[in-house]
Amino acid sequence: MLRFLFSGLLLMGWLMAACAPTNLAPATDTPPPLATLPLPTPGSTPLPTPTGDVISNDPTPAPNPPSAYAPQPGDKTLTRGEAFVQDMGVLILESFPPQFQLSLVGTLPTPCHQLRVAVAPPDARNQIVVEVYTVVEPNLACIQVLAPFEVTLPLNGYPVGPTYSVVVNGAVVGEFTPQAP
């Protein structure tokens, strides 16, 4: 019995050695040279990235990109419902200039409901009104269980100077003041 066990282990060792890659490069202590690119300076020509994108030298934050939770054109055919928001806040990221985000945590009535977050431009009182709601196909049969969500949305691209209040579904969530770079 012991002879068969030893033979089996020996056979497995040979198979593993036969399947091992044989074209490995020898290990060296010196890393390969890194390509050096000139750093952009204010007023210089933007640098292309390896993918062809252009890196902007403008330090002004970009406006908020379209959100996956923004209202969609097809929403008019869906039934609007309530999103249950349990926690919300304005986050200030440790960067210069500071960047701001809206954090939302809650539940949807069912997994078939889709979250929508409509962010309006600041009004005359510098309030940014945010509506959080759901849409659902009216005739869709769905399991009746709450579906959790956790969303963080950027609040960038607002003019420097005034303090903005963020109001979510009628409740003041927080304030932020954009700063110049």
Radius of gyration: 28 Å
Query: Strand tally, please?
Result: 10
Order of helices and strands: HEEEEEEEEEE
Given as residue ranges, the uncertain stretches (5+ residues, pLDDT < 50) are 30-62
Quick summary of this structure?
This protein has 181 residues and is mainly β. The protein contains one helix and ten strands.
Tell me what the structure shows.
Helices cover 10% and strands 35% of the residues. The protein is mostly beta strands. The chain has a domain at 73-176. Strands 3, 6, 7, 9 and 10 form a 5-stranded mixed sheet that branches. It starts with a helix and ends in a 5-residue tail after the last strand. Mean pLDDT is 76; it is low at 30-62.
Chart the SSEs and their pairings.
Layout: H1 2-19, E1 47-48, E2 54-55, E3 79-82, E4 84-93, E5 99-108, E6 114-119, E7 127-136, E8 147-154, E9 164-168, E10 171-176
Parallel strand pairs: 7-9
Antiparallel strand pairs: 1-2, 3-7, 4-5, 5-8, 6-7, 9-10
Give the tags.
181 residues, mainly beta, five-stranded mixed beta sheet, 1 helix, 10 strands, elongated
